[in-house]
Amino acid sequence: MNQMTWVRGVNATLGRVAPQLIASRLRERFMTPRTSSPRDWELPLLASSERITLRFGLSALRWGSGPTVLLMHGWEGRPTQFALLIRGLVDAGYGVVALDAPAHGRSPGREANVVLFARALLEAASELPPLRAVIGHSMGGASALLATQMGLRSETLVTIAAPSRILGLLRGFARFMGLPAEARAHFVRQVEKTAGIPAAHLDVQRYQLELPGLIVHAEDDPVVPVGEADLIHQAWFDSQLLRLPAGGHQRLLSDPVLLQAVLELLEQVPQASLKALAS
């Protein structure tokens, strides 16, 4: 018996005996990110960055100058995972700001969720010049979509390997961890209480997405199924969909096709309304 099988068995037993208790423990685990150190290939980019701290303590890295592109990494991710995009955007004349999400990197907090990620984007946008683009990977992409519903303003938006709805992720995690039905329901309710928004509301089918954008997803993503990209595309009338044949959940960030698609989107969308975004 491997360790995960043993964990699921324990969760299943406790889930029948004490469903609220095990749901509480799983909620804490679900919302507490693990620390991950930059890989060797990220270090040169990290060394070339400028560390900035926003008004309420949120930490970020900055490169270059020019129209601002704001980046948000995924769960347990890092700004420098966007290395190819950052270098390409800076070379093309853009200024890039990449956030440490709440409870990640040097940003404060112990727990995080998609709502806190979205609020972090709003906080950053309030202190930066008008945004030419917002780019988010995985939960960062989901939070960028949500942030537009909370008032985030940007010329364009790019999601990479993002889920279309959060409820499916919650249920999938609870099933994977072996929780029986009653404990799964408690788990979802506890996550909703902590985040402050019903999980069913965190669904692009309910959003009004009124800016042009790009949806990127790899066909072989083992974490977020590629069908999620199709659902986002269906709900977002002014979006382009790029499905890469390979790239998994992380490797696609270093695909030159992704960089080219982002640069082409920025070239296609006029900058005439940047002043309006600031008003």
Global geometry? globular
Rg on CA atoms, Å = 19 Å
Quote the distance from N terminus to C terminus: 61 Å
Q: On the 0-100 scale, what is the average pLDDT? A: 93
Largest sheet descriptor: 8 strands, mixed
**Order of SSEs:** HHHEEEHEHEHEHHEHEHH
Kindly name the structural category. alpha/beta
CATH architecture of the largest domain: 3-Layer(aba) Sandwich
Report the β-strand fraction as a percent range.
15-25%
Number of domains: 2
- Reported by name, the CATH topology of the largest domain is Rossmann fold
Q: CATH first level of the largest domain: which class?
A: Alpha Beta
Beta strand count: 8
> What's the CATH H-level superfamily name of the largest domain?
Alpha/Beta hydrolase fold, catalytic domain
**Uncertain runs with pLDDT below 50, 5 residues or more?**
273-279
Strand order of the largest sheet: 1-2-4-3-5-6-7-8
> If helices are DSSP runs of H or I spanning 4 or more residues, what is the number of helices?
11
Q: What percent of the residues sit in helical stretches (DSSP H or I)?
A: 40-55%
Domain AB hydrolase-1: 69-249
InterPro entries: AB_hydrolase_1, AB_hydrolase_fold, Carboxylesterase_BioH
GO molecular function, one term: hydrolase activity
Protein name: Alpha/beta hydrolase family protein
Can you tag this structure with a few keywords?
single chain, alpha/beta, Rossmann fold, 11 helices, AB_hydrolase_fold, Alpha/beta hydrolase family protein
Describe how the helices and strands are arranged:
Layout: H1 3-17, H2 19-31, H3 43-47, E1 50-53, E2 59-63, E3 68-72, H4 83-91, E4 95-99, H5 114-127, E5 131-137, H6 139-149, E6 154-160, H7 166-176, H8 181-195, E7 213-218, H9 227-235, E8 239-244, H10 256-268, H11 274-278
Parallel strand pairs: 3-4, 3-5, 5-6, 6-7, 7-8
Antiparallel strand pairs: 1-2, 2-4
Helix pairs in contact: 1-2, 2-8, 4-10, 5-6, 7-8
